[in-house]
Amino acid sequence: MRAKTVLCLLLLSFISSAYASGNSHEENDTYSRSSNSPDLRNVSGSELNADSAARMACPIGSCPPEKSRYGAVYARKSLQGETRFDSGQGEMMLNLGLLVDKGGSAGPVIYGKLPLYVGVMQTAGGGTAWAMNANSIRNAIPGGRNSFGGMPGSGVPGKPGALGNVSTIGFENDLTNWDKDSAQSGAFIALYYGHFQGSFSSSAYFNLDAVMAGATYGAHYGMYWQKSSVKDITWMDASGSDTGMEFVGKHASSVFEDNSSGNVSLLLKGRKSMASIIDAGSANSSFNPTGSFRQATIEDKSTSPSFLEISGLHSSAAIKDSTETLSDNFFMAIKANHKVCLNGRSVCIYYSETEKMVVGTDPEGRRIWHIDDAGNAVFAGSVTPHGKP
């Protein structure tokens, strides 16, 4: 019996050695394993998950040297692996799944159903903390200065363009709704949900930055909403903050650029205490239409007491006509019976549609002269010929 047991152990050892030999890959100077470092593809979960409070870790993509300024990084549990198959075969390092088929609670999220919960707590004297950190490196060569123990480590940059059109996604979160529209069901359904609590304000809900080489930028788009991704409102601000949006920095083209199609580019509603739009900037002009408009550059259908009120100090003119060509050479076309007044409403002129004449009035609104369509003129006062104005 003992002989059979020994024989079985020898056979298992031979099979294991052959499996390890068949799954090893060629090592290079940049990514070399130490003599006591195992091939990651052949290490059992129990070896990689040994519960140790002092296990030195070398995280992929962010591995500090063993003698770094802040010392080594330690992990209670460390799990690293390596892909086995070529393209066309999906692979996962860890798969967590939860079938929710029993009633949940409407209370705090911890009483709900979660396949994964990550919690972190800081106390006085504690260091910087992240509840979760994901790091994706595109086109890297494993190893490099920030690596030890035969681990891939932080890696070094590969040859630009080596990956071709293979995609890289830092984080993906999918939500499938096969139930009802949230407006009909009354349920709260969100792909992402952020929540602050406590006694003091924090810095920001989202803070994005980039550390790039030279003048390269981190991305082409800050946020990109694909077609049909949103129905009602792309951005909904119900915060009540002092300022809804503030833009700083230097923008070579424009702060806003509207290339969409629809009814209007900007629709202003709500009650404002001062004005719908205030321009307190510095530029050659505040409003500069250069497009092609079928009806009017400015169309006023409001009920305000005045369409245009001009104040302030203007060194040249309140209204200046610098047009080169005008259709039929009209600068201004005023409807009949509408008055044009000088010095407030002291002296006014208008065209009487019924009488077919231009009429002038005094500060009391009395008619003091008129000229009809035939050129006949009538003045309430005297006319002095050949006089000196």
Describe what you observe in this structure.
- This protein is mostly loops.
- Among the domains are: 49-76 and 140-155, no CATH class; 326-384, no CATH class.
- It has 3 helices and 9 strands.
- The chain has helices spanning 2-22, 45-48, 182-185, and strands at 55-57, 73-75, 140-141, 156-157, 340-342, 347-352, 357-361, 367-372, 377-379.
- The longest helix is centred in the N-terminal third of the chain and has 21 residues, at 2-22.
- The termini are far apart.
Query: Structural class, from helix and strand content?
Result: little secondary structure
> What form results from the Cα inertia axes?
elongated
Count of DSSP H/I helices: 3
Q: How much helical structure, as a percent, in the residues?
A: under 10%
- Strand segment count: 9
Please report which band the strand proportion falls in: under 5%, 5-15%, 15-25%, 25-35%, 35-45% or over 45%.
5-15%
User: What order do the SSEs take from the amino end to the carboxyl end, as H and E?
Assistant: HHEEEEHEEEEE
What quaternary form is this? single chain
